[in-house]
Design goal:
Length: 298
């Protein structure tokens, strides 16, 4: 298996379905947690915690993954979460996610069941995470694609109804899904780098989305991480140089600059730059967490 194929597997996202609640799950298996060597870096000096949920990555030939910390999960975490190790202590649960096979071949009810099982593990991991950490530390929710879907439901089910959880929410960074402006009642879009308790959600495109696009549209939240509030066309910092970003009238984060039009739209144009949702503005997002964490701890 080539690294390129593993990257595709790690970053291709989940499809259309909301996540219902399901039955009990075993105790949490941690892919990453502070104080140990792991693909997220294992730092212990950062002022806040990141609760990271990786995207659809499992190559297992089943509808739902098991709880093995398999190499493709580590690859996804190293690519997406490790850069945040300088600004937060990263916790990342292994979960029985809907696999790539499930999302490509299963019918609607089967995918619903797989996503429900996945959320059970995330809900359980959140409970375990709260029991093991300093309750006064701030928390950043960090995800992508299926991981963002899990965190959106966690925000709705466990954080918005809980004043103590809301009080320690630094931010939720959940790109790669369609977050509606009506999804949350207390968590609002971030409008400033020093604002806390807010959400950053977007999907990246470099060309006008087709009519059957999976992302964007009326009522969908697009938060420009490079220009919170103002949404000016602004450079985004990451491994791909000289790119700029601005949310457009389709409510997607439109990427422009040298080479932007050649960036991969996989598996097809309806997904936009889904594989690169976190990658393109990676340093911008790390800097945002640094600023928000400073504001929280102050």
């Amino acid at each position: 298996m080539t690294r390129a194929l593993l990257l595709v597997a790690a970053l291709i996202g989940s499809l259309f379905l909301s996540v219902p609640t399901a039955s009990a799950a075993p105790s949490t298996t941690w892919l990453c947690r502070p104080g140990s060597a792991n693909p997220c870096g294992g730092g212990t000096d950062a002022p806040v915690d990141c609760f990271y949920v990786y995207p659809t990555a499992s190559l297992q030939p089943a509808q739902s993954a098991n709880l093995d910390a398999s190499p493709e999960l580590a690859f996804a975490a190293a690519a997406q979460a490790r850069p945040f190790g300088s600004v937060c202590n990263v916790w990342a649960p292994v979960y029985r996610q809907a696999t790539l096979l499930s999302l490509a071949t299963a019918d609607g009810p089967a995918r619903d069941a797989a996503l429900a099982e996945a959320y059970v593990d995330i809900d359980r991991a959140w409970t375990d995470f709260l029991a093991q950490r300093d309750s006064n530390r701030g928390v950043v929710l960090l995800g992508h694609s299926q991981g963002s879907r899990m965190l959106r439901t966690l925000l709705q089910n466990r954080i918005e109804p809980d004043p103590a959880a809301r009080d320690v929410l630094v931010s939720a960074i959940i790109p790669g899904i369609s977050v509606r402006t009506s999804d949350f009642t207390t968590v609002a879009p971030c409008t400033d780098v020093t604002e806390t308790g807010c959400v950053v959600a977007y999907s990246t495109f470099s060309r006008t989305p087709p009519p059957d696009s999976r992302y964007g549209g009326d009522g969908i939240l697009c938060t420009n991480p490079a220009s919170l509030g103002a949404n000016a066309r602004t450079p985004v910092l990451g491994p791909l140089p000289n790119l700029t970003a601005q949310c457009d009238s389709d409510n997607v984060l439109m990427i422009d600059g040298p080479g932007a039009a050649a960036l991969p739209t996989l598996p097809n144009a309806t997904w936009g730059l889904h594989l690169l949702d976190l990658t393109i503005p990676l340093q911008t997002l790390v800097d945002l967490v640094r600023s928000q964490s400073a504001a929280f701890t102050a």
